[in-house]
Amino acid sequence: MTDPSAAIRLTRLPSGLTVVTERMERVETVSLGAYVAAGTRNEAAEVNGISHFLEHMAFKGTARRSAAAIAEEIEAVGGQINAYTAREQTAFYVKVLKEDLALGADIIGDILTHSTFDPEELERERGVILQEIGQANDTPDDIVFDHFQETAYPGQPMGRPVLGREFIIRALRRDAFVEYMRRHYTTASTVVAAAGNLEHDRVVDLVARHFADLPSAPPPPAEPGRYSGGEFREARDLDQVHIVLGFPSVSYADPGFYATMLLATVLGGGMSSRLFQEVREKRGLVYSIYAFTAPALDGGLFGIYAGTGESEAAELMPVTLDELLKVQRDLTETELARARAQVKAGLLMSLESTGSRCEQLARQLQVFGRIVPTGETVAKINAVTIADVQRAAARQFRERPTLAALGPAGRVPAVPAIAGRLAA
Question: Could you read off the pLDDT of 289-315 as tens digits, one per residue?
Fold first, then answer.
């Protein structure tokens, strides 16, 4: 299976592990990562936060390497190693000079297949995770998104925080990590992607050798997300109230996906966007306001974040809601063209990064089951019409909203009032 560009090649090993590469001849580096289709939404309630904790623990020692050795070996060749956890994916990746690719593949394979979860390291890292949770709780423009997610998807994996909850993190024991990794870190759920100055066949040989001990049993399915919506408020003694207003939205595979991306850009995707111009520039109600999409495999969220003063909060929401109504009946081709240019530029600029290319290749395979050519994506963006964007707005903004507000939120309208104004 080969991408039309001929630079992208894909191999499925007999074990079931997928290896995909993109050759970029004009760079001197290679990025390689293991992208596991398991994250917060794959966790049972009693182990919420284990995906993120495990991401940390992967760097804390293997059967062959201590935590210090992992860092020292990669930095001895000037390389970089990192990881992240999301709701549907956990990733471990390196960036090295092209001649050090073998070392990068060895280390990533080692931490995924031979992590020891040393009890002393586990206790030390438990303290780090608890500090991270505390820091998030002390950062209102960060933690408000956790409250938003939980209100949109109450009592289910899609609504739980990526970092987990303090009492759960304190209770997690070594056997929980071993079992979670055995069930979810399998060849069927993992894509190894590499991009840069490389040879595909050599990458395949390295992956076959260093990931040979990855389990091959199929992982358990994730629980479907069930949007509910509603309202969360927490009064805090803050100078600003932090607000996230959102609605149920589309999945990656939905035909309206690109129209929804462009809708977010038109409304709050930059300094020229409607919300920035109307709310900040004309009225001075906020310092920060933007719109975002959060697609998933089986649904998604569309949201708007704003941080405003207590006295400005009463005016902020009606002005914002009016923009959500206006875009459904009044959108110009000039605005849409500008949004298209922003989205396409973001896509094409990301192709210049070997790390971004790895992530895109893996995500496309895990979402669509194939590599989506860049030309196909650009064509779909170009094909979006004004009517498509307005249909996307009408489809979402008539659903039950989700509101999360943190700070002096007494003047922020309630969800029934918000829904009523949007239905008028």
Answer: 999 999 999 999 999 999 999 999 999
